[in-house]
Each structure stands twice: as structure tokens, then as C-alpha cells.
Amino acid sequence: YSNLEALMAEKGLSIAELSERTGVAQSTIRSLIRGRLKRLDSISTGKLTQFFQCKLDELYAMKWE
User: What Å distances lie between residue 23 and 2, 16, 26, 51, CA to CA?
Assistant: First the structure.
């Protein structure tokens, strides 16, 4: 599960703004927020963690079923 929506809210960013600033496609960001994207490539992950200055585990919350 992604913490992306919460991180975006902290910075007051829309999906379009985050996409523009990071170079990650809006569709990818939407899919992450909605929980539809199971994997994210390392380049996009790197862009998001660098932008938010966070660690990978802060970007994703693991939920074990």
C-alpha cells in the first residue's frame, strides 16, 4: 500500500503537479494511490523517494494478509 497520497497532501500537491515535478506519469501516480499498481519500476521509485526525501518503507506501507 502506498503512502503517496498522504505525502502529497503534506506538500499540497495534486497528481499533475507531482507528475510534472518528478517525471512520473500521472497514470502511474493514480494507480499507486488507488492500489492498482502492484510494482513500480526502480526509476520511478527513486524519483518519488528523492522528491519526498524519504526511504522506500516510508513510501510504501507493507500489509501482510
Answer: 18, 10, 9, 10
- Over the stretch 7-59, which tens digit does the pLDDT of each residue have? 999 999 999 999 999 999 999 999 988 888 767 788 999 999 999 999 888 88
Strand partners, 2: 60
Give me 19's grid cell: 507528475
Q: List Cβ neighbours of 4 (8 Å cut-off, separation of 6 or more).
A: 29, 32, 33, 48, 59
* Residue for grid cell 507531482: 18
Q: Which amino acid is at 34?
A: R
